[in-house]
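Quick check before the chapter quiz. The format below is the same one you will see on the exam, so make sure you can read both the input and the output lines.
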Amino acid sequence: MPILSEVQENNMDVDLELNDDDLPYEEEILRNAYSVKHWLRYVDHKKHASKNVINQVYERALKQLPGSYKLWYNYLRLRKKQVRGKNVQDDELEDVNNAFERSLVFMHKMPRIWIEYLSFITGQCKITRIRHSFDRALRALPVTQHNRIWPLYLEFLDRYEIPETGVRVYRRYLKLCPEDAEEYVNYLVKNNKLDDAAQQLAKIVDNEHFVSKYGKSNHQLWNELCELISKNPDKVLSLNVDAIIRSGLRRYTDQLGHLWNSLADYYVRSGLFERARDIYEEAIESVTTVRDFSQVFDAYAQFEELSLSKLMEDVGKKEHQTTEDDIEIDLRLARFENLMERRLALLNSVLLRQNPHNVQEWHNRVKLFEGKPLEIIKIYTEAVQTVQPKQAVGKIHTLWVEFAKFYEVNDQIDDARTVFEKATQVEYSKVDDLAAAWCEWAEMEIRQDNFKNALDLMYKATIIPKTKISYTDESETVQARLHKSLKLWSMYADLEESFGTFQSCKSVYDRIIDLRICTPQIIINYGMFLEEHKYFEEAFRAYEKGIALFKWPNVYDIWNTYLTKFLSRYGGNQLERARDLFEQCIENCPPDLVKSFYLLYAKLEEDHGLTRHVMNVYERAVSGVQESDMYDMFNLYIKKAAEIYGIPRTRPIYEKAIEMLPEVKSREMCVRFAEMEKMLGEIDRARVIYSHCSQMCDPRITQDFWQNWKEFEIRHGNEDTMREMLRIKRSVQATYNTQVNMMSAQIPTSTETTKSAMQTLEAKAMETNYKQSLASTSGANIMFVRGEVQGGDINKRKEEGTVYNPDEIDIDMDDDNDDENDEEGSDQEGGGESTELKNIPIEKQAIPSKVFGGLKKNESDSE
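Here is the expected output.
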């Protein structure tokens, strides 16, 4: 075997285990000793051999090709796989380490080889060797590939407790990746190096360009710093905690409560309890929101409670309790109680710091110090000096008024007057506020029985300036516009009525009217004042002045009072003057308000005028009132006409009502009209009225009307009149159905199916209504319909395809029996009118002039 001997000669230093299958691969290697492909093919052939054999093949290949990355990479991965699960003290691990070291002689620029080596050696607990290997890797590889090594390095630091090494390594790492400073902080906190962590976190917070990898804002990082340094005062020594937190207070104003609590907590944990108490007091006096106050106050109260509990616990453990201990307990208990008592006052201070111009909060503050006069005076003084009228939330004049009332309650009237005098000089934003201050001052003088002083104050406040000033001109001061304040003048008038003379009070009312600032109520009050002093004509002139000043509907109350007072004063003595007043009132009065004036006018004419004037007023009233009042007015008109002229004279009124009223009310009026005619025995007239009303009565809706007409025909009609009523009913129903069909035809449909369905529903509705009408007729046991039909007619109808109805009324038979019906109808009650109705078309019967024309023509005969 010459080939085998040749292979053994070339590999004398390697102990080979060759067989016949290996000879082809050995021959290829002899011919291509520097071919990686052939060596890999040989390795793949020996993959099921023992690890020593395959390792020998790799060693032979690497001896020939020491610079082959593929051979080294596969060989090292194979060696790592062979020692997987071995003990860290096993010698085979060191052999693998030596293999990695040999590979790095040639592969030191290959990051993947370094990664394999470092990940393998990290688990062997050889700290110094691992650290040196990482350092060698970082030195060997270019900087652009360090990002592949550092994660393994940091993982190695977290795996072993080597804080000193870790700090130095992280400092080197942050020079390359400063954005990972948060990981360094977490590492320091984990290893209890809180001072270094606080320093690093402070640097992060100060860096405005820092972007957190975890999405934290600068504010969140600041809160972490405050929490770290406040809870570890004994470990964070290199930072000025007080300065850091106070800078946060100036910077983050939306988290003041949390930051103040952190600062106080720092001093509590440091054992400086008095300093912590000062911090809490400072926080309570400086926060501006209720949320921050609640956080600080709750922490403060908890601190005082725990401090008291701790002291009592320590004293309880002593065998002998001293006097100093009792004093200390009482002191802390009093301090805690004082804090709880001050809560509402402190909360009010927070609200006032939030908005010092809130008037209501100042009033609330005064209530908190009730029973402490000096404190209340200080609060009121501070309030009137702090609140600016232009920025005030609420009515600032109430502060001045309550301040003066406080002095008044304590019998310091001069001081109260001084406060009121200053209150009248304040530049309020509204004239009403200044007027209210003057009015309160005058009321105080009244309570002190100084009526003359009150009148003098009102006179002083209402002095009219020489120059003309508009009340709405905000460029002028409120003091210059005060003379047009209605509130002030109203009180002045009340005071003059109570304590002044007649002339002075009248002068005040006249000045109010001259300034054109009066209201309808002022005019009414003026008129009543003049009436009380028996100046009736002066009162009427006052009412007329008010009527000239105001328009409808504001003048309604004045007219109502004026007319009522005038009628009660003169009655019918000045009838023409009263009529002129009513005509003037009604001329421009809106329809919704004129009803009461028409009734009053009619009452006047009824009591003192002529009957025709009364009817004239009611005639105008039914046309002048609004539609909702028209029905009631017609009822009054009919009632008065019946009382004065008798029932027959109400017919024209009924006719007019039927024409003017809405359809619903017109139907009611028609029924009443028919009842009246029936009561008078005018059956034909009643029937014509029913016929006219039927044109606006849909049988599907107004069944009561048709039932009334049917009962009327049963009692007073005959076969012809009943037949005519049924014919009219069918005609009206057909008319309404035609209207519905026309409306339905105008509605667009999407498909032919919908159209046919609508037609089917309409046909069923028409058939149902027709059957209902026949059923209602048959239910009354009135058998006016022919009782038999010839069979030939039935067969004929079936052949023609028409529907046969056995209850159908043959209208055509009326033409054959006209003469006979005329003779029979002449002997029956009301029968003479039926022939005329047959000859009148249904359309003409719906026209009121045609129907009621015949009634008017025979009216004289009936009377």
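If your answer matched, good. Confidence is low (pLDDT under 50) at residues 1-14, 744-755, 770-863.
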